[in-house]
Amino acid sequence: MRIGFLFSHDQTHQLAHSLPIAMALAALRPDIEILVATSSPQMEAQVRTLAGPLLCSRIQHVRLQLNRSFSRSFGPLLNRFLPYEKLAIYGDNLDFFRSLDALVVTEKTSLLLKTHYHLDRLRLIHTRHGAGDRAIGFNHASAGFDHVLVSGDKIRERLIDDAGVAPERISVVGYPKFDLLPATPPRLPLPDNGRPTVLYNPHPSPHLSSWYRMGKDILRYFCDSDRYNLIFAPHVMLFRRKFVISIDKFRIDRPGGIEPAVRDCPTILVDTGSAACTDMTYTQAADIYLGDVSSQVYEFLIRPRPCVFLNPNRVDYRGNPDYAHWQAGAVISRMEDLDEALQNAASDHYLYRETQRAMFNRTFNLTGEASALRAARAIERVMCPQFSPA
Q1: Which of 102, 197, 268, 375 places its Cα 20 to 30 Å from the Cα of 285?
Q2: DSSP-assigned beta bridge partners for residue 290
Q3: Closest Cα partner for 307 from 329, 292, 285?
Q4: In this structure, what is the dihedral angle of CA atoms 281, 283, 285, 290, given to the nearest 10 degrees?
Q5: pTM higher than 0.85, yes or no?
Q6: What pLDDT score was predicted for residue 62?
Q7: What distance in Å separates the CA atoms of residue 102 and residue 5, rounded to the nearest whole number?
Q8: How far is the C-alpha of 218 from the C-alpha of 238, rounded, in Å?
Q9: 183: phi > 0 → left, psi -120 to 50 → alpha, else beta; which?
Q10: 40: pLDDT confidence band, cut at 50, 70 and 90?
Q11: Sequence-separated (6 or more) residues with CB below 8 Å from residue 254
Q12: Are 62 and 37 in contact (CB under 8 A)?
């Protein structure tokens, strides 16, 4: 049996959601051939760092290439504006995908293998990436997978109710990314000045993000502040291309750049794409979370701490499950309210602490067993039902 794990060229932020599962499955079932497929040198380097010697022994690495002449000639140009290479990698490597019994993926683009390329024998197993509330995470595309691994009851229930996923096609496995948390958070290159550290973590989607309307003003505020340190670590896709396109509600916008004064400010750490943006370094280090719709807020809540949410688009969020995370702190719509909201965040946190704990526990079903191993056992039950307990 051959089970593949796919990491496309721009999905470094999704690596921790499924590579630990590949490693656990390789240890659990040495009789199964485990293949990890990457499509960029950057992704391959991160896979090698995380997988270590397993990649040379129990796990095979496959480097996917753009094989068709059109893809090779025009892919780099088109990729400046659209995720062309991410889409082309499927059609250019159909022989590899046909050779697999199952493919484990973190995103939904891979459904093209069934809907467009008709690889009906291939089982697609979705691990998801993150545990947020955005509506796109619960659209009907999720029902196209043969099985879905989810972090907790909140995700399971919304997939059944909103996406129409059959309950028997869902396994609650916890959150494999948490398996990678270091015992001691790393020190950050910020001054030891006793100030609370704020993490500003805007999402890239133009119709949801706070960045396009408020982001630069927020950075100037912290540049001028004598009360806070700031980690500016947006979603890694915010500055990846010159233009950002929302696919769930079509909109296009230009993220622009970051002012030199902000980059040079000694109390601001700017990181728009390193591994620390996605390995929970910053969510562990910060004292206050400032954001909009990123699922990283749930990772931040592994320890209840103050949160402030930004609503410059004036969304009617109350009672909307797509914004359930905004129950974890104050919500503001105007730049003029930021200073007061931050000053009140710590003193008012007692109002939100129990809500935060309840939100975290509904989002993440964690047990004494590593989440990656629970996920590996779930894949074993799907692919090898004869090994399942009676």
Answers
A1: 375
A2: 200, 308
A3: 329
A4: 140
A5: yes
A6: 94
A7: 9
A8: 16
A9: alpha
A10: confident
A11: 242, 243, 244
A12: yes
pLDDT of 246: 79
Q: What pLDDT is stored for residue 249 in this prediction? A: 74
Note the pLDDT of residue 390.
Answer: 44
In terms of Cα–Cα distance, which of 188, 141, 180 is closest to 162? Answer: 141
Give residue 104's region: left, alpha or beta (phi > 0; psi -120 to 50): beta
Indicate the pLDDT class of residue 71, thresholds 50, 70 and 90.
low
**Residues 6 or more apart from 263 whose CB is under 8 A from it?**
270
Contacts of 246 (CB under 8 A, 6+ apart): 205, 206, 207, 208, 252
Judge whether 25 and 376 are in contact, CB under 8 Å.
yes
Residue 268's H or E segment, with its range, is strand 268-270
Residues of the chain with pLDDT > 90: what percent?
A: 76
Phi and psi at residue 156, to the nearest 5°: -60, -50
Are the C-beta atoms of residues 253 and 221 closer than 8 Å to each other? no
Task: Dump pLDDT digits (tens) for 126-184.
Answer: 999 889 999 889 999 999 999 999 999 999 999 999 999 999 999 999 999 999 998 77
Q: Which long-range contacts (CB under 8 A, 24 or more apart) does 76-85 make?
A: 80/241, 80/242, 81/241, 81/242, 81/243, 82/245, 83/10, 85/9, 85/39
Strand pairing report for 251-253 and 244-246: antiparallel
CA dist., res. 91 & res. 72, Å (int):
13
First to last CA, the chain: 22
Beta bridge partners of 7: 38
Find the helix or strand (DSSP H, E) in which 300 lies. Answer: helix 296-300
pLDDT at 67: 76
